[in-house]
Specification:
This protein has 11 helices and no strands. By secondary structure, the protein is mostly helical. It folds into 2 domains: 90 residues, no CATH class; 75 residues, Alpha Horseshoe (Leucine-rich Repeat Variant), CATH 1.25.10. The mean pLDDT is 85.
Length: 198
């Protein structure tokens, strides 16, 4: 039962630091079983919707080192994407993961890349050191899978993240160029970022 699993994840999260190894193991197991279900059904589920993610986010900052390790070292892309999503649910308390998230912007998996960009935006001002990498991500033109929720998920999330970084006057030329982007979401978020920068 989905509600029971989610409640169990939150209960473990409320235990705090002692629950981290159990929740990391649950993330790894949940990722594998979700992937196998998708293969069996020929369907796709967002790897950011695993119950263990919410438990790890509930632990908060003490879970950041373990999630950072998973993000950088786990061989399963789904697990890495889940680790990035869990960090994103924490927001600013995940600031210690910024270097690993910047590295994840170049991951082979589109889901890891998009979740890393989203998480950097959720961390906000404490992730300003990631601005150059996010600007670089705006130029990522790798194709995405048929299961993608967007035609340019990394680029969109990178622009949204830049918008959340506060005033960045030195990026005005980049943002003005983005107003001409073929992607409507990138154009819209660039306009928002320029408006906020005034």
């Amino acid at each position: 039962n989905e509600a029971t699993r989610l409640n169990a994840a939150y209960a473990l999260g409320n235990i705090g630091k002692p629950a981290i190894p159990t929740l990391i193991e649950a993330l790894q197991q949940e990722s594998k079983s979700a992937w196998n279900r998708n293969l069996d059904r020929g369907d796709f589920t967002n790897p950011s919707q695993l119950d263990s993610i919410y438990g790890l986010a509930a632990v908060g900052e003490p879970a950041v080192p373990a999630l950072t390790e998973v993000l950088g070292d786990d061989t399963d892309w789904w697990t890495r994407a889940g680790a990035a999503a869990a960090l994103g649910c924490m927001g600013e308390p995940a600031h210690g993961a910024v270097p690993a998230l910047v590295k994840a912007l170049k991951d082979n998996s589109e889901w890891v890349r998009r979740n890393a960009a989203d998480t950097l935006g959720n961390i906000g001002l404490s992730a300003r050191s990631a601005v150059p990498a996010l600007v670089e991500a705006l130029g990522d033109d790798r194709s995405v899978s048929r299961w993608s929720l967007s035609d340019a998920p990394l680029r969109e999330n990178a622009m949204i993240a830049l918008t959340k970084m506060g005033q960045l006057p030195h990026l005005t030329p980049v943002l003005k160029d983005a107003l001409q982007d073929e992607n409507q979401y990138i154009r819209s978020w660039a306009a928002i970022a320029l408006e906020r920068g005034r």
